[in-house]
Amino acid sequence: MKRGVLSARAVGLLLLVPPPLFWAGNFIVGRAMRGDVPPFTLSFWRWVIAFFCLLPFAWKPMRRDWPLYWRYRRHLLRIALAGVTAFNSLIYVGLQWTAAANGLLLNSFIPILIVLFGAVFYRQRLSLAQAAGLALSFAGVLAIILHGEWERLATLSFSAGDLVVFCAMISWALYTLWLRAIPPEIDRIGLMGAQIAVAFLFLVPMYLGELAFGYAPNWRAESFAALAYLGVFPSVLAYLFYNIGVARVGAARAGMFIHLIPVFGVILAVLFLHETLHLYHALGMAAILSGIALATLRVKTKTLRRV
Q1: Arithmetic mean of pLDDT, 26-47
Q2: Which of 1, 233, 235, 290 is 20 to 30 A from 91, alpha carbon to alpha carbon?
Q3: What is the helix, strand, coil percentage profile of the chain, to 5?
Q4: Are 88 and 46 contacting, i.e. CB atoms less than 8 angstroms apart?
Q5: In whole angstroms, what is the distance from residue 183 CA to residue 8 CA?
Q6: Which residues contact 180 (CB under 8 A, 6 or more apart)?
């Protein structure tokens, strides 16, 4: 029995490695396509492709688990809104005005947000070290958002793109916590299909509204290749692996893997987007990682397991 539990945890940990790589690619593609495909159009077609790729595998469990979806309809609605609609759309909007490297580094704050929201909303106790970690990590986020120019704080001068991307990070932290409310007997492939289907309730009006305001895409070979990548790797494979990983190892441990995104992503940004890294990137990243080390030193997940 113990061997089975250990094996399940080991598989869960291994499954949490590819999602950061695929999601890092999501930032690179989102930034590269900003001049050709508007953000809501990119998000909409990404999920259309993902839904039809997933449907042959998800249809049977979706039909079987329909009564459970209805029972947990409020939970399904909020994870679809936070994890599918808001997170990705906000990233694509933010990347219109900020570098991919900034967005990738801000992702490292997600584990801290998970711990913080766990304490605020689910009464998870914070130690002094965890509180210090939150403060240190937040200072790192500010360093990135302010581009190392602390005088901007006095005048409330922030980069709009960085702030929008940070809102996306909040959405993902909530998604990770709320995902624990979905019982393990609900098939995760079917759940992913259901999430996308529910997300279309929000994505369709956003997409149509963007077109109505005159933001038309410039379709070319690179645009279709980008959508193909977005529709399969960060949308289907990454979400499935992450959902299974959360179910097996818990939200707090799964959230720790998020900080692998900048490790993969910054390398990709330098290689493919020719972006330049600055000192404030390094200082902000160092503060965030140090804060994570402090805040997650003794994370207790008993409360999260009840969510």
Answers
A1: 93
A2: 290
A3: 80, 0, 20
A4: yes
A5: 17
A6: 246, 250, 251, 304, 305, 307
Query: How far is Cα 29 from Cα 274, in angstroms, rounded to an integer?
Result: 13
Look-up of token digits 């997940």:
301
Number of residues assigned to the chain = 307
| Residue 76: how many other CB atoms lie within 10 Å | 22
Q: What is the pTM of this model?
A: 0.79
Does residue 303 have a pLDDT over 50? no
Q: Are 133 and 299 in contact (CB under 8 A)?
A: no
Q: How many Å separate Cα 132 from the centre of its chain?
A: 24
Alpha helix stretches (DSSP H) within 180-259: 188-212, 221-232, 238-249, 251-256
- What is the per-residue pLDDT across 130-168, written as a single tens digit (0 to 9) for each? 778 778 877 887 787 777 777 766 665 667 898 999 999
Give the pLDDT of residue 62.
96
Supply the pLDDT for residue 157: 60
CB atoms within 10 A of CB 255: 27
| CA atoms of 254 and 83, how far apart (whole Å) | 15
**Sequence letter at residue 102:** N
E strand spans, the chain: none
Structure token digits, residue 143: 């360093």
Question: Tens of pLDDT along 59-100?
Answer: 999 999 999 999 999 999 999 999 999 999 999 999 999 888
